[in-house]
Amino acid sequence: MAGKIAALAQIADLDLKLLKLFKTVVECGGFAAAETELNISRSTISIHMSKLEARLGLSLCQRGRSGFVLSEEGAAVYQAVNRLLEQIEDFRSQLNGMHVQLAGELRILTSDSVLLDPRCPLTPALGEFARQAPKVRLALDIEAMGEIERRVLAEEIHLGVIPFHRELDGLDYLPLYQEQCYLYCGADHPLFAEHDDARLTARLADYPLAHAELQTHPEISRQLAGFRREGKAYYYESRAALLLSGAYLGFLPDQFAAPYVAAGRLRTLLPQQHHYRLGMVAISKRHARVHRPRDQFLALLRAQLARQGGH
């Protein structure tokens, strides 16, 4: 009996196809009857059965002129196969149920006006996630990017969306889209009516610049060099307010500034010379605790990027 138990314990390592074939043969009452059910020849069934017996080290049945008869070992294996297949089905059902019953909270922070940019895949992904996981409570807010990085690393939030400005150990980065930034001034600024590029270039250093006061990547640092960085305004809305006051110059993303430009309240200055790109990324903690709503949302975000042709 100990030998039988040891042999049956090997079932977990066997090819499930062979076990299912054996189950069908038993339930059909023999090789001949199983031919139609399995849609393979009797000789092929015999080969598979021999392979299964060899792998188990057991004789499962007698076949011949006297007909198909299960051995004692074969009957025990048949019962074990039924239990195994039932457990596999239970496991599959539980997994499916887990996907359907996502619950808890998904906390996301974005930097500034990311969600208003039509190129950002976050908004459609949020809509799809809400439909797929209605029991998950979404918490979405805006924060400075340094704070977003800190809170993702501390696992206080699950996902952040920021301009890519550095790569930190412990974070994964998913590129989303590119943001183009230009230099602007307001309609009441002395340079608004100046259209001579040479005079504009010469006069830029005469006026204060509103900026985020962050240590950023080299391209932005080069663009800020030579300006009088006297106005601190991290968020785009507050920076735009300083520009609209007529007292400051400043860089803004083109999508954010477009309505003000169309209304004649802002003007782009020397766009061929003064511009830089921001790569927007979604950040999540590498090796974070398991959190299925976050993983599901990231999968939806990647699918949305694929639909937009970005990945």
Automatic annotation (TrEMBL):
Known InterPro entries for this protein?
LysR_HTH_N (IPR000847), LysR_subst-bd (IPR005119), WH-like_DNA-bd_sf (IPR036388), WH_DNA-bd_sf (IPR036390)
User: What species is this protein from?
Assistant: Pseudaeromonas sharmana
Could you tell me the superkingdom of the organism this chain comes from?
Bacteria
The answer on whether this UniProt entry bears the keyword DNA-binding reads yes
Among Pfam families, the record links this protein to:
HTH_1 (PF00126), LysR_substrate (PF03466)
**CDD domains from the UniProt entry:** PBP2_LTTR_substrate
* Protein family membership: Belongs to the LysR transcriptional regulatory family.
- Record keywords, A-Z: DNA-binding, Transcription, Transcription regulation
Instruction: Cite the Gene3D superfamilies for this sequence.
Output: 3.40.190.290, Winged helix-like DNA-binding domain superfamily/Winged helix DNA-binding domain
Q: Where is the HTH lysR-type domain?
A: 14-71
* The protein's name in its UniProt record: LysR family transcriptional regulator
